[in-house]
Design a protein that fits this description.
Layout (H helix, E strand, L loop, with lengths): L9 H8 L3 H5 L11 H13 L5 H8 L3 H11 L49
Helix pairs in contact: 4-5
Length: about 120
């Protein structure tokens, strides 16, 4: 319309389209997140000594809120990434075949009884 010579105000356009002027002029202004530099320094020192520690471990060791520590990890780029999940190569399944009986044995050594420990004495080696 301006090209044709008719001047149209923002108020008129908003009224015709059913769009509020407030929405027309609105711009989002999100404040940058604030970082506690003292806490960030403490966390950095801890993760330098314990690089395997995630945010939960760090929060527990420092006695801080885990959500605060997780947010700090994300903002600073220190987030411990999850392992890739999905298909992993499997061991090829082969049938256990023995020519004669009593030739192949298998056992589970998850628990081996080593006797009872006497209080105050070290384990025997």
């Amino acid at each position: 319309m301006a090209e044709e010579g008719t001047a149209v105000t923002v108020s008129q356009v908003c009224r015709w389209s059913g769009y509020s002027r407030r929405s027309w002029y609105y711009t989002t202004s999100r404040a940058k997140p604030k970082i506690n530099l003292e806490l960030a320094a403490r966390v950095k020192r801890l993760i330098d000594t314990l690089p395997y520690a995630g945010y939960r471990t760090v929060a527990w060791l420092l006695g801080e809120n885990k959500n605060t520590i997780q947010r700090l990890f994300q903002l600073k780029g220190w987030q411990v990434r999850k392992r890739r999940s999905g298909m992993r190569p499997r061991v090829e399944v082969k049938r256990s075949v023995a020519d004669k009986s009593n030739e192949r044995w298998a056992t589970d050594l998850a628990r081996v009884w080593c006797g009872e420990q006497v209080a105050g004495e070290p384990w025997p080696s």
